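Renewal narrative, Specific Aim 1. Our central claim is that a sequence can be written position by position from structural information alone. The example that follows is taken directly from our test logs and has not been curated for this report. It begins with the structure tokens describing the chain, in the order in which they were read.
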């Protein structure tokens, strides 16, 4: 992973963690937009990088995807849910922090193992794909919990028109 990709990845992860731990209203489609964008970026990155594909690399990537999806389920259940101003509201918890530490550990471990088996480029260029997939699973689980609890989801606020001065 080059320096620019690393900085962008750290910035996105930092923003996501900040938003998850400060608490916010559960949104409609907003909660799946970023994960889907990240998955798309991940697919494009892999297509452009054209890393060498080996059985060990594919197996390691598949294992990472399964593990991080499972951790996405865990994170989806780790949020504290309630209402604020009559709308579904989520906030972080100690369990969410532990699940994030495990998720980051899986990512780092896969990268190290990938380098050891000659699949470093495959694993490093799949960061956005893995992160986006895990966030997507987390968002879907959280939304399922909100729906099952019958909590009302606050509609997205309309975007304000920009005025040119």
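The sequence written for that structure reads:
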């Amino acid at each position: 992973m080059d320096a620019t990709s690393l900085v962008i990845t750290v910035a996105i992860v930092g923003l996501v963690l900040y938003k998850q731990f400060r608490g916010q209203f559960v949104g409609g489609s907003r909660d799946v937009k970023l994960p889907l964008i990240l998955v798309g970026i991940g697919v494009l990155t892999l297509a452009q990088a054209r890393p060498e594909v080996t059985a060990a690399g594919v197996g390691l990537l598949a294992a990472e995807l399964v593990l991080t999806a499972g951790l996405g389920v865990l994170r989806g259940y780790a949020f504290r849910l309630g209402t604020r101003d009559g709308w579904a509201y989520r906030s972080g918890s100690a369990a969410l922090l532990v699940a994030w530490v495990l998720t980051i550990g899986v990512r780092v471990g896969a990268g190290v193992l990938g380098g050891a088996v000659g699949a470093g480029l495959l694993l490093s260029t799949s960061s956005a794909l893995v992160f986006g997939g895990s966030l997507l699973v987390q968002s879907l689980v959280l939304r399922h919990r909100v729906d099952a609890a019958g909590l009302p989801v606050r509609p997205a606020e309309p975007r304000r028109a920009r005025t040119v001065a």
